[in-house]
Amino acid sequence: MKKESANPSQGQLEKLNEVRDGFIAQWGAFGSQWGINRTMAQIHALLMIGTNALSTDEVMETLGISRGNAHTNLKELVGWGLVRIIVRKGERKEFFEAEKDVWKIFTIILRERQRREIDPALELLRDCQEETKKLKGTEAEAFRNQVKELEQFVSFARNIGGKVGKLSYGPAMKLAAKVLG
Amino acid sequence: MKKESANPSQGQLEKLNEVRDGFIAQWGAFGSQWGINRTMAQIHALLMIGTNALSTDEVMETLGISRGNAHTNLKELVGWGLVRIIVRKGERKEFFEAEKDVWKIFTIILRERQRREIDPALELLRDCQEETKKLKGTEAEAFRNQVKELEQFVSFARNIGGKVGKLSYGPAMKLAAKVLG
DNA sequence: CTATATTTTCAGTATTTACTGAAATAGATG
DNA sequence: CATCTATTTCAGTAAATACTGAAAATATAG
Fold it and tell me: Is the pLDDT of residue A59 over 80?
């Protein structure tokens, strides 16, 4: 008979995989609500909760997805800076490893969303003001004014986000303490 | 010959409509990147930049969409609290009016996303910790630990968001000044 | 250079998500 | 209660998005 020990039993391994699979599936679902592709979120979850870097084939197999899909989304994650490519000497394959530090993950996502989504939105808001600068009438003024308010708020928020994103964990916590008073 | 005045000329009205249409279209595109349905974002933009409340028919007509689509998305916006229903006496139709105060818009979106997306994610993270509490082994520990870190961070951020969302404009700006200090 | 392993691309297809239009329901009016 | 107006629902369809699988490109080793 097997003795109880620090090593997991068969049942425990099964349980772990069950919970992990559930986590990955759910995380994928959350991702798609946030405008992130489901598979990308799943791969990110998979790499984040595992102990070692995985190859494309391992990702394909674990999630049951095609090579093309795995490849595209892995590279997309690398593009975000959330995943790094690891090359092991003697091995020809690439392996993929996720950033695990939650604060780093947060700042990366913050910066990337600023760059990809906030900045273009600000540009639109500024263009709209510029284009209607000389127009007269109630309607035109209402439009210009609302757009201006939006622009001021977004660029203000962006500013705060920018500062926060540059902080490292310690200083960020000190700042948070102030906010939480 | 028409004299120049505070009233907009024909050309100005055209220009205004052109810029407004561009704004609405672009805002819709941004919305879909953020996991918000395009039409809903467009209707929100339309109501936000206009001077008066619009009926379902006016929304349909302006955006060139079906009644069902207009109806569903208007009610969804009402569900978010970003749009109010106006009933004019003597009129049988409902009219829709958007919240225009940017700080209010921000706090509404903050609260709703917390409720709809962050809270369920936190629940998942907590469940995963609970379910794996007793499992032994390196893999299990890595999983539990990463999930714990995520949970701590998200619930911490949620906390800050919660406080900020409860502030009104003035105090929020004072707080922001500290952060930007 | 040839053989082999790995990555990348992408046309075709599947899945998901959003929209239409019309029918059903609800509300008001005389 | 018959009629008219407005709202709501939803089956069917359209559009957007994501995925597959295989072929092409690239890299490595002998």
Answer: yes
Is residue A1, in this structure, part of any structural domain at all? Answer: no
Q: Do B51 and A153 touch (CB under 8 A)?
A: no
For residue B11, give the H/E element and its range.
helix B10-33
Is B59 found in the same domain as B14? yes
CATH number at residue A76: 1.10.10.10
Tokens of B124: 């998942």
Give the per-residue pLDDT at A178: 80
In the listed set A98, A122, A147, which residue is the last one of a domain according to the structure? A98
Domain count, chain B: 2
For residue B20, give the nearest of A16, A33, A143 by CB distance.
A143
pLDDT tens digits, residue range A64-111?
999 999 999 999 999 999 999 999 998 999 999 999 999 999 999 999
Rounded to 10°, the helix B56-63/B67-80 angle is: 110
Say whether both A121 and A168 belong to one domain: yes
Q: Is the pLDDT of residue B2 over 60?
A: no
Q: Which range marks the domain in which residue B132 is found?
A: 102-180
Q: Which of A43, A69, A98 is the last residue of a domain?
A: A98
Which of A8, A117, A137 lies at the smallest CB-CB distance from B12?
A: A137
pLDDT digits (tens, 9 = 90+) for B93-140: 999 999 999 999 999 999 999 999 999 999 999 999 999 999 999 999
* Residues in B touching A30 (Cβ below 8 Å): 117, 120-121, 124
The pLDDT value given to residue A1: 55
A128–B19 CB contact, under 8 Å: yes
Asked if the Cβ of residue A88 lies within 7 A of any atom of strand C, the reply is no
Spanning CA of B52 to C1' of C18, the rounded length in angstroms is: 28
Residues B90 and B115 in one domain: no
Contact A100 B180 (CB under 8 A): no
